[in-house]
Structures are given as C-alpha cells and as structure tokens.
Amino acid sequence: MEERDALALLNEWWKSGVVSESLAKAYKRKVFDEAWRLLNKHRQLLLITGLRRVGKSTLLYQLISSLIGNGIKASNIVYFSFDIASAEIVKILNAYTSLTGVDWKKEKVYVFLDEVQKLKAWSSQVKFIYDAFPNIRLVLSGSASLQLENEAKSNLVGRYFVIDMKPLSIIEYYELKTGKRIERFELYESELRNDLENYIKKPFPEIVNWESDAEIKMYIKESVVAKITRGDLPDAFGNVNFALLEGLLTLFYSKPGMIINTDRLASDFQVSKTTIENHLFYLEFAKLIRIVKNYRPNISTASRKLKKVYPYDASLALAIANIEWPYAIETVVASALDSNYYWRMGNKEVDFVMTNPLVPIEVKASREVDNEALNALVYFMKRYKVHKGVLVYNGEVEKKVSRVNILPLVRLLARAHI
Asked: What digits encode the pLDDT tens for the residues 279-297?
C-alpha cells in the first residue's frame, strides 16, 4: 500500500475532526495519565513498548483524541502504522503534507508511529527528525521491546522517555469488565479474589468479557503468540526456525520455572547450542518468556548459570499448555514483580529476589501456610542480613511471622499496579 493511501485510511480525523470511539476507546488504562503528562510537559519523544494486544495502539488513539479535545487542529496530527505499510519517515511526512497542506517542516505537528520496530534503521531516521525539526512531537510504539529500547539507548540518548505497557492489572481488568472505577481496593477485594482465576486467563483488553475457554485460548495463540513467532520475529531477524520457537515455547510453558540447560536443549531439538541461545534471545526479545537468574551479591556471578525460564505472562502458558495451577500462580507473581532473580543454594531455594531493596519472596498456591514454608526465607534473611521477607499465598489474611509478611496474592497484584 502506498504512503498516501495508508495515511488517508488511517487518519479519519482529518475529515471528521474526531477519533471514533472504536479506536480511542472510552476506558483509559493507568498508563494514559503518565503518557499524557510526558507528551505535554517535555519535548523528548515518547516510546511505548509492550506485548502485542495489550492496548498500545488504543493508547495512541486516546492521546490523539485528547490532543484534538484540547484544541490541537486535527490536521496537525498524523498517525502511521508499519503493520499496514512500510516507508521512510520523511516520505510518510511528505505524503502527509500533500494530503493535508500542513507543512511538517515548519508547523507544530504531532507524529504517531505504530509498530515502528518494523521499519529498518528506524532510530537513525527518528534521530534526524528529532534533531532537525524541533517543531515535531514524536510518539512511537512497538512490540519488540528489547530491540526498541536497545536502539533507543544506542541512537537516541537523552531524546526519549519509555513507557512499558503490560497486560491488564487486576484492577484494570475488573474496571474494564464491569464498568466500575475502583478508588478503594478494600471495598472490592472479595470480588477481585473471586474473579482472580478468570483474570489470570485473559488479561487482554479485547477479551475480558469472553466466557469460552476455547475462544480465549485461540485468541491468545493466534493474535498474540503466532503473530510474534510467525510475523514479528522473522521481520526482525530473518533466519528464524518456527518449529524450534514453537517447540521451545511448548516446553517452557509446560514447565514454568525450569532450569535452562542449553546443551540438553540442543541435543533434544537436534540443533546447535548457538541456535538454541539465539532462539532463547528471540523469545525474550519478543516478551514471550522471562529469564530469571540465580541471585548472588556479585551480579556478574548470578548471570552465568542456573537460569530459570518463565512465561512472560501466565495467560500465554495457559493458552498453549496444560500447566498446574501452582505454576500459573508462580508465573503470575514473577510477572507482577517483573522479577529478574531467584535464589538457590544447596537444598534451599527462594522463588524470587528483589534487589532494590533486597527482599526475598516465596510463593505458595495453598490457602494456608505453615512455619516450614518460611524456612528458606528466614535462612536467606539471616545470611544476607535482610530485615524483611514476603510469602505470597492464595489465602485471605495478611499477617506477619518472623519478620516475614504473609500476603494474599490478590493484594500483591493490586499493590503492584496502584
């Protein structure tokens, strides 16, 4: 599709003066306020990253709608998606000028570029526009977060802010599903706990009201996972082995928290160790898996061996594999904490370790916990002179035992996103 045709199709507000609610949906996620603040306060470009289907494009449309509502001329806002077509940014802007008559080189223009990672050498093009035309405000989004952030760090130092959009928080899920705003978590705690399993299965905006497990799984398989493995990753790297990617995902999603043994994986899949390492990078790059390292005070030591792998989000694993609920809950906590570390020494292990400040966190899927469940936490706290530990469980009562906060899962999920 030519740039002019794509622009005319994508920018309905040039004719109507408004963004339709089918695009700029009424419900605004929590990140909207931060994105709106940064867009209006700073000249730096805004980079919005995150897994597919979490609502990045919707956020862009909501920002566009709010700009128009606050007096910015509709013709001075241009949106382009590299999912639809590919072209150099200057060519897109020249086509925009030919359609609207707005001189992008002189007038104040807001430029929204969606799925920008699909544009080759995007960061050098963005750097040129940013440096040469201070009248232009840039908002970019993309699904390949590692690539986007690495390129931004290399070429756009000091020129950008990053917002990482995750799947819906439990608060957002409930608000979007019911149409109610939760101002006080305490008033809705029982409702959130009762809907916890449904939330874990479908934390994507489009499917919060779906009831069919089969349809939910198909949506996640096709609209999230397959879009990445068969679209985004080949676009980014070219030499991708689809069968290997899908085989690794099935394995990792079946066994959340498994130790990565690249030699064994290479033998099992009959490929080289380098190929395994490359495809692990691709999956982490695309936010399909999360690598968690064995914590040591010397961080460089932690990165060398005994790495664990988790699904990036529990819903992905539940759609692809039949995993036991305790593993799903462990994955949920890893995602909520955005965890990078766990701890194992001898026969003692702590599920996750937060490093700033240092806090060990254990996860139990049971509705009750006993003192034995605290042993590894207490040992870690004594060894590293830590004054606080956390045990997350699937119960209802929050309490403190031996300097360990015993915390219901639903409260952790609510607090992690407030």
From this structure: 999 999 889 999 999 999 8
Return the residue matching tokens 């950008």. Answer: 160
Q: Are 116 and 89 in contact (CB under 8 A)?
A: no
pLDDT tens per residue across span 376-393: 999 999 999 999 999 999
* Position 214 confidence tier, pLDDT thresholds 50, 70, 90: very high
How many angstroms separate the CA atoms of 317 and 177, rounded? 22
pLDDT in tens, 2-34: 899 999 999 999 999 999 999 999 999 999 999
- Contacting residues for 311 by C-beta, under 8 A, at least 6 apart: 252, 253, 256, 288, 289, 290, 317, 331
Is the per-residue pLDDT at 402 higher than 90?
A: no
Sign of CA dihedral 370, 371, 374, 376: negative
Q: 157: how many CB neighbours lie within 10 A of its CB?
A: 9
Nearest to 335 by CA among 308, 314, 359: 314
Residues making up the chain, counted from first to last:
418
Residue 279 CA to residue 147 CA, distance in Å, equals 15
**Peptide linkage before 357 cis (omega within 30 of 0):** yes
Q: Would you give the end-to-end CA distance of the chain in angstroms?
A: 42
Predicted TM-score (pTM) of this structure = 0.93
Is residue 350 over pLDDT 60? Answer: yes
Q: Residue 263 to residues 174, 236, 273: CA-CA distances in angstroms? A: 44, 26, 6
